[in-house]
Amino acid sequence: MSAVERGGQALDRLIVDVADYPQPGIVFKDITPVLADHDALVAVVGGLATAGRDADGAVHVDKVVGMEARGFILGPPVALDLGVGFVPVRKAGKLPREAHAVTYALEYGEATLELHRDAVRPGERVLLVDDVLATGGTAAATRDLVERCGGVVVAVAVLLELTFLPGRDAVAGVPVTALRPV
């Protein structure tokens, strides 16, 4: 069984759906039971890290970038697994130094993300890590931020992909690894 399949099985077993959160009509995917289970956490980190390796298993990224807030939880262990650094993408006003900013539409509102201008060096290859790929707005905004720094997004890795939404279209041309399509 592949690392992606093991990660997907852990998600099937432990993710909890929370109806009408954060607003009516939204089904929130609570990943905290996955994080609390050591074996499940190891499985999902291993599955996500496959997106940062080539077909021979060699690491082909220089950095992992995780989006606030659950990308902060998942990204650092993926970066450790790959032996590369981690860079956070934050909500507006949370970074202390000069940053690039992008405002984008969410499935239920609008948000602004920021990335330190020197967080990714020109030419660095980046793996984006987050919990859910839905409309793709967060991933596309983060890709834009990385590219403004001169970096190249080479892959996106997520726990869940909401396949009834156009998330992949928002990051067209970038391979997406989803441990569990739903």
Provide an overview of this structure.
It comes from Nocardioides aquaticus. Belongs to the purine/pyrimidine phosphoribosyltransferase family. Keywords: Cytoplasm, Glycosyltransferase, Purine salvage, Transferase. The radius of gyration is 15 Å and the shape is globular. Helix 1 (3-14) packs across helix 3 and helix 3 (38-49) crosses helix 4. It has a 7-stranded mixed sheet, sandwiched between helices. The relative contact order is 0.17. The protein is built from 6 helices and 9 strands; from the N terminus they run H-E-E-H-H-E-H-E-E-E-E-H-E-H-E. A hairpin with a 7-residue loop joins strand 1 and strand 2 (27-30). The chain has helices at residues 3-14, 32-36, 38-49, 70-82, 137-148, 167-170, and strands at 16-19, 27-30, 63-67, 85-91, 99-106, 109-116, 125-133, 152-161, 176-181. The chain has a single domain (3-181), classed as 3-Layer(aba) Sandwich (Rossmann fold), CATH 3.40.50.2020. The mean pLDDT is 94. It is an alpha/beta fold and 182 residues long.
In short:
With 182 residues, the protein is α/β, with parallel strands linked by helices.
Task: Describe how the helices and strands are arranged.
Blueprint: H1 3-14, E1 16-19, E2 27-30, H2 32-36, H3 38-49, E3 63-67, H4 70-82, E4 85-91, E5 99-106, E6 109-116, E7 125-133, H5 137-148, E8 152-161, H6 167-170, E9 176-181
Parallel strand pairs: 3-4, 3-7, 7-8, 8-9
Antiparallel strand pairs: 1-2, 4-6, 5-6
Helix pairs in contact: 1-3, 3-4
Function: Catalyzes a salvage reaction resulting in the formation of AMP, that is energically less costly than de novo synthesis.
Subunit structure: Homodimer.
Main location: cytoplasm
